Amino acid sequence: MFLFHRLATILLLSLASPITFAQGTSTTQQQQQQNNRRPQSAGKIRSNADLAMSEGRFDDAIQYCKQAIELEPQNALNYYKRYRVYNRMNKLESALSDLTKALEYESTKMAYRHQRAKLLVSLGQCNQAVEDYALLMSDSGKGQDASIVDEARKATDCAADINRATVAFTRGNYRLSYDVLTRVLSQTERADDLLFMKAESAFHIGEYYSAVSDTARILKNHGSHLDAYRLRGDAYYRLGENDMAINHYREALKSDPEHKGCKAGHKKVKALVKKVKKAEEAMSAGNYEEALSKWQQAIVLDDSLTVFNHPTLLKISECYSKLGKHNDAIATVRKYMAVSGDTIQGNVALGDALMESEQYEEAVRTYRQAFEDAPEGEDKHIREKLQKAETALKQSKQKNYYKILNVSRQATSKEIKKSYRELALKWHPDKNTGDSKEEAEKMFQDISEAYEVLSSDELRGKYDRGEDVFENQGGGGGHRDAHQFFRQHFNNGGGGGGGQRFSFHF
């Protein structure tokens, strides 16, 4: 019995030992977990932020700084640490906010004030920077520092320039404000308010590409800057890039459908685009009366839109030429040249109008001027026009087949055939008797000769190049009998022999 109790005691003790050990282990782990859950000190968190920043983990560094601020909201160092991270991230507005907060809690910290003064200059806030530099200069430790003295002088000059530019802009002296702001912005890193003022100044003095470039930088930093969208749309409109203008107006109108500037700009550009489309469609269809009307309506939508209105004068001139209103065509081109200067494009257009009006000598002179002014490699089409004008001039002193058939040099084969049939019937010798018969005989012969040449692609090509189209052309021979030629075209190739005349019955 004694032995039994002894064994039972040993067994109970052996079973109790591991339970006690297990309980001991569990208590240690719990204590460790509790220690892990204890909040870290602000100093430790700042150290973590420094480490994250050194490793380029800026988002983590911001979070650590935020935790430190929550623990010590009145500790200037926490805000200064976060300022440094924002500065590295190029989030300069946020950096300035934290640096200002740090100075609220430790206003005598001159290192903070010096950093803020430099940051204010980078942001174009030079007036505020001058105030910080004044405090730095009054400090016994910083006031004698040559680099700070130089920085203070530059900040003072910057503030004076900003004031000068602002006054100039307010008074409408946009050239001065543009020039001064260009100088100021060369010393800043990101000053979007000043950059927008410069962009507006650029727009007002016609520096539209500069306005486009500056507003692009603004929108990169502030994607919701609706006035930048408006100004950029206006600049594209002035450059004649209507699709880009519409895109920018629409982007702003997504955020504010009633934005006054973008709404008005969008309406104006759409009206112009609509007129242009209708004019181009009419020209493609050969409806030059309609095209002329639409072009004329388009240029009065905005008298100041020279990038559109001036080139459109050339389209109007082309319509006049196609309509046979040659004097109007020439006058319109000269109007273009009066506002645009003696340009290559203007001289080519004038040459075209002169060719249409058969003023060949003047056309040759005008094309030659354009050819001489054109850069090498870009003068091929002008040389071709000049050669055609010289050929036309030569032909004008001989027989002008186009003039005989009363068609333009650009006439289609269908137009040439129609004119021939009408004129041949009109001047057929059988229809003209008495004193007019001899004249009719000559006209009938010339009309047939002209049609023979212009109805043949080969002969017309030679004629247009100024080459002889018939053998012994100088002697007047080579072409077929006019009456035979007439019968072929009015009787489908049938008819009698040789010189048999075609009889008319009226």
Write the layout of secondary structure elements.
Elements: H1 2-37, H2 42-54, H3 58-71, H4 76-88, H5 92-105, H6 110-122, H7 126-138, H8 146-170, H9 174-185, H10 192-204, H11 208-221, H12 226-238, H13 242-255, H14 260-284, H15 288-299, H16 306-322, H17 326-340, H18 344-356, H19 360-373, H20 380-396, H21 401-404, H22 413-427, H23 437-454, H24 457-464, H25 482-490
Helix pairs in contact: 2-3, 3-4, 4-5, 5-6, 6-7, 7-8, 8-9, 9-10, 10-11, 10-12, 11-12, 12-13, 12-14, 13-14, 14-15, 15-16, 16-17, 16-18, 17-18, 18-19, 18-20, 19-20, 22-23, 23-25
Structure description:
The N and C termini lie far apart (162 Å). Helix 10 runs antiparallel to helix 11, helix 16 runs parallel beside helix 18 and helix 17 runs antiparallel to helix 18. The protein is elongated. It is built from 25 helices and no strands. It is an all-alpha fold.
Class from helix and strand fractions:
mainly alpha
Q: Report the mean per-residue pLDDT as an integer.
A: 86
What form results from the Cα inertia axes? elongated
Report the β-strand fraction as a percent range. Answer: under 5%
Characterize the biggest β-sheet.
none
Termini gap: 162 Å
Return residue spans where pLDDT drops below 50 for at least 5 consecutive residues. 1-25, 474-478, 493-506
Q: What helical percentage do the residues reach?
A: over 70%
How many helices?
25
Order of helices and strands: HHHHHHHHHHHHHHHHHHHHHHHHH
Give the number of DSSP strands: 0
Multimeric status of the protein:
single chain
Q: Nearest-angstrom radius of gyration? A: 44 Å
